[in-house]
Amino acid sequence: MMPIEIGTVLYAGAIGLVVIGIAGIVLSYHLFRIILALVIAEAGANLLLVLSGFRWDAIAPIITGGAAARTMVDPVPQAMVLTSIVIGVGIQALALSLTLRAYQSYKTLDIRELQRRMSADLAGESGTPLPQSLEEPVGGRPLPAAEGDGR
Amino acid sequence: MSTIVLTVVLPLLAAFVVPVLCRVSPLLGRLLGPLTLAYAILLTLQVWLGMEGKPFSIALGGFQPPLGINFYVDRLSLLFTFLTLVTSLLLWPWRNETEPRQYALTLLLAASACGLALSGDLFNIYVFYELISVASFGLAAATRSGAAFAASLRYLILSGLGSVLALCGIAIVYLQTGSLNLAQLSQLAPEALNTPLGMSAFALILLGVGVKGELFPVNSWVPEVYAAASSRVSGLLAGLVSKLAVLVIVRLLVLLFQQESALHLMLILGLLGAISGELAAWRAKDMNRMLAFSSIGQLGVIFIAFSIPGETGLFAGLALSLHHLLVKPGLFLLAERWRGSLAGLRGAGLASPVAGGLFVLLALSLVGMPPLPGFWAKFLLFTGLAAQPSVIYQVALGVVLLSIVIEANYLFRVVMNLFQPAEDNSAAVITSSHGWLNLGTTFLLSVLLIAGMLFMGPLGTWLEGVAMQAADPVLYFDTVFSVSAIH
After folding, report:
1. Is the Cβ pair B164, A129 closer than 8 Å?
2. Average pLDDT of span B388-417
């Protein structure tokens, strides 16, 4: 078997995290899961950024005493990652507080339900009919609706 | 010359002072924001007159460009700084006396937008872009209704996804070149980024920044946010923030990604945006949604214009952007009293003829009626598109024409409705008048529009100069790395 380099694994990991995050955002319906998926995707992007300046044969970019004895890791991406982590945390906190507000208004964290209630609110405010759902047949369902499926 | 940095610093400082000052003295708190913005406008004009058309670069903190972060000041970035400050001042939330937070957020938006326009460093652009995002989330949720919270939450999630994509793109750029300074990148890019990997970096950044620019696949937040937010915020987001996102993409296209496939990608996304936005606007039943979808369509047309190679594209795109920046906020301000279903607007124009007249003027310019500036902007776009030999640009020409037809159809339908006498049985005619503030702002925008029409000749020449200067990557490099760089 061919030996796999550790760099390849890390890159695959970073891109994998981003993909998992995007999949989570697209596929899940629970708001909290979506926010967690966003966190995972951000972690992946940050890892990719760190990797972009990393070298295996180098030391940490800290000058102690005299001149640098050996080659150092590129410090720029590390500084940038710190910034982007801080930005990410800020956005996540904002997302959570907005989630809290949305929950207080609509008492639900299901993104479909939330969107339905929001459209209904907006339509009610402007006095227009609800936008037709593309998933629902116009003429109603041909089969008798199941219990609790009252839309 | 280095006073231009104050256009970022002062509003930022004021943003954090305002909430405190509002507790001490409400009057001072209310005045601080507009005064700061007005002073920043003055500074911008001063720099404008001082630079005599020559671009210059400011090394922040005295660290020279390849290592330090620099501000690049040319006519394009100064123009956008000026427009940012003026638009934020025009759309200042005067009315809400209870909420110092909204003052702070508007100032934050203005500061970060100026920084975005001036910055010459890719990561710095990302940071300012995130600042704009945070400010716009807050502004979108400022009406504090359940719908506004839900809409801005969805906006936040999409925008967060966009910034992850943009960050990945930036990481790829750094991986390939080892630099984030735009000037240095412009030297390295022809070799390092003219690869499939470089192209993927562009696609990621385009999608990421495109969230604010209402680019086609990532614009689902637009109708909800504009329907739920106040008119001033909608005008600010649709008019200003989207243009700044476009500015970032244009800078990257000029300096980093000169390959044809990058332009084609943007052209295709612009086409899809233009056609989908206009069709959705045609189907829309209420005013704010119609304006939101039509703004997606307009932005699609702007993306099409910027995807024409060379300075023709820049010139046409700039003209369209300026025109849209002038017209869209005006329409949103008029829509404040006319929000709600389009059918309910019957006779509203007769009830308030001034507002009706302004609406007609802005709508005509938006469609592109000959003497108005909108016509000249679209004229530039058509000549630019027609001059391209490639088939895809001819298709784009057809699509843009089609989108104008659709646009004319729905806008004139609204105008017809406005000026039809109301039926007797529909007592729900909108009688509330527009506030003098909204009407005055819209009037000012219309006056600017008419002035633009009267001075179209010199304005066109001047704008072409701006585009020529911006389209020159060699000039950018020389300016940043010249010995005369100010620090």
Report:
1. no
2. 91
pLDDT over threshold 70, residue B425: no
- Shortest CA distance to B8 belongs to which of B131, B93, B98? B131
Q: For the complex shown, is ipTM > 0.95?
A: no
3-state secondary structure chain B: CHHHHHHHHHHHHHHHHHHHHHHHCHHHHHHHHHHHHHHHHHHHHHHHHHHCCCCEEEEHHHCCCCCCCEEEECHHHHHHHHHHHHHHHHCCCCCCCCCHHHHHHHHHHHHHHHHHHHECEHHHHHHHHHHHHHHHHHHHCCCCCHHHHHHHHHHHHHHHHHHHHHHHHHHHHHHHHCCCEHHHHHHHHHHHCCCHHHHHHHHHHHHHHHCCCCCHHHCCHHHHHHHHCCHHHHHHHHHHHHHHHHHHHHHHHHHCCCCHHHHHHHHHHHHHHHHHHHHHHHHCCEHHHHHHHHHHHHHHHHHHHHCCCHHHHHHHHHHHHHHHHHHHHHHHHHCCCCCCECHHHCCHHHHCHHHHHHHHHHHHHHHCCCCCHHHHHHHHHHHHHHCCCCHHHHHHHHHHHHHHHHHHHHHHHHHHHHCCCCCCCCCCCCCCCCCHHHHHHHHHHHHHHHHHHHCHHHHHHHHHHHHHHHCCHHHHHHHHHCCCCEC
- Backbone phi and psi for residue B455, each to the nearest 5 degrees, phi listed first: -105, 40
| Predicted confidence (pLDDT) per residue in B164-215, tens digit | 999 999 999 998 888 888 888 888 888 888 889 999 999 999 999 999 998 9
Residue from B153, B291, B336 whose CB has the most chain A CBs within 10 Å, to mutate: B153
φ, ψ of residue B70 to 5 degrees: the values are -125, 155
Residue A140: per-residue pLDDT: 57
| Contacts with B223 (C-beta within 8 Å, 6 or more apart), sequence order | B280, B284, B289, B292, B293
Q: Please indicate whether residue B26 or residue A100 has the higher confidence score (pLDDT).
A: A100
CA distance A144 to chain B (A): 31
Q: Which of A125-139, B26-40, B325-339 has the lowest mean pLDDT?
A: A125-139
Position B335 scores a pLDDT of: 84
Question: According to the model, what pLDDT value does residue A130 have?
Answer: 66
Nearest to B153 among A95, A119, A129 (CB): A95
Tell if the CB–CB gap between B172 and A21 is shorter than 8 Å: no
Yes or no, beta carbons of A84 and B167 under 8 Å apart: yes
Query: What tens digit of pLDDT does each residue of B245-285 get?
Result: 999 999 999 998 888 899 999 999 999 999 999 999 998 88
Could you say which of A80, A94, A121 has the minimum Cβ distance to residue B147? Answer: A121
